[in-house]
Amino acid sequence: MTLAEITFYFLSVLTIVSAAAVVLSNKPITSILFLIFAFFCVASHFLLLSAEFLAFVQIIVYAGAIMVLFLFVVMLLNLNKNIEPYKPILFRTGAVICGGLLMLLIIGALKKTAGMDMVVVDEELLQTTIQAGKVKTLGKVLFDEYLLPFEVVSVLFLSAIVGAVILGKKDI
Amino acid sequence: MESIKHIIQHVPIEYYIVISAIMFSIGVAGVLLKRNAIILLMCIELMLNAANLLFVAVSAYTQDPSGQVFVFFVLVVAAAEVAVGLAIIVMLYRNFDSVNINMLDKLKW
């Protein structure tokens, strides 16, 4: 076992445990903190896969911006109390079984997808993989092949800003 | 940057599929279990992150940067979704004095 492998297994366990803790914890603040931790774990996974740019964007955007928004809302509105109504054990077991079945379905569906068995470990191709995560390559692909989606996404963002402001105002 | 070599050589891509499937189903189970609107939004974020992880893994294993560009778009959509979603939650709290989504059953038949 190499160090990279050990890191992979360790990170995977940490990711799944913190993701489960998001759902299982009672108070919203604890959930939010566990979710931030899960995002950091996913960012480390990205680093391990040599997607450096995305790892840092993940930390800055997700852990930095989105989760601060969550924390703001919870703390400003003073929502840190458990409001879950009592649900019968049958209901909870049903939800967990649904989740487990969905997991099996996803694994079964994706396992035999075309292209998954084409993993090559060629030295030259490995260089391509390492380059793929670099800002230079990503920028070229983003502004060359995906220029139109990029512009559309900026319009989407603008509409989201306007929508959030209008929804947040007390009276227009 | 030697880590990627060991990962691709020793960790089959199925492992990444399993991890992201587990993360995604935890998110789904959370949506089914919880009634707090904020936690529901967080579970959706968890599901988006599971998809992102699989995108990056497949992108790294097949040497194609397009997957990472898609993650970028998913990130942007998630940010927009959270902004609007939290605005809706603030509205909900202002009108009902609670963030329990059982309050919103007017469209239920």
Explain how this protein is built.
The complex is a heterodimer of chains A (172) and B (109). Chain A is 77% helix and 0% strand. Chain A has 172 residues and is mainly alpha-helical. Chain A folds into 2 domains: 3-117, Up-down Bundle (Four Helix Bundle (Hemerythrin (Met), subunit A)), CATH 1.20.120; 134-172. In chain A, α1 (3-24) runs antiparallel to α2 and α2 packs antiparallel against α3. The N and C termini of chain A lie far apart (62 Å). With 109 residues, chain B is mainly α. Chain B has a single domain (4-107), classed as Helix Hairpins.
Helix content of chain A: over 70%
N-to-C CA distance of chain B? 56 Å
The appropriate CATH architecture of the largest domain in chain A is Up-down Bundle
CATH class of the largest domain in chain A: Mainly Alpha
Strands of chain B, total number: 0
Order of helices and strands of chain B: HHHH
Shape designation of chain A: globular
Major sheet characteristics of chain A? none
Largest sheet of chain B: none
Structural class of chain B: mainly alpha
Q: Indicate the low-confidence ranges of chain B by residue numbers.
A: none
Distance between the termini of chain A: 62 Å
Structural class, from secondary structure content of chain A? Answer: mainly alpha
> Radius of gyration of chain B, rounded?
18 Å
Strand content of chain B: under 5%
What assembly state would you assign to the polypeptide chains in this entry?
A: heterodimer
Number of helices, counting only DSSP H or I runs of 4 residues or more of chain B: 4
Write the layout of secondary structure elements.
The complex is a heterodimer of chains A (172) and B (109).
Chain A (H helix, E strand, L loop, with lengths): L2 H22 L3 H21 L3 H25 L12 H23 L11 H10 L2 H10 L2 H22 L4
Chain B lengths: L2 H8 L2 H21 L3 H25 L4 H31 L13
Helix pairs in contact in B: 2-3, 3-4
Give a nutshell description of this structure.
Chain A is mainly α. Chain A contains seven helices and no strands.
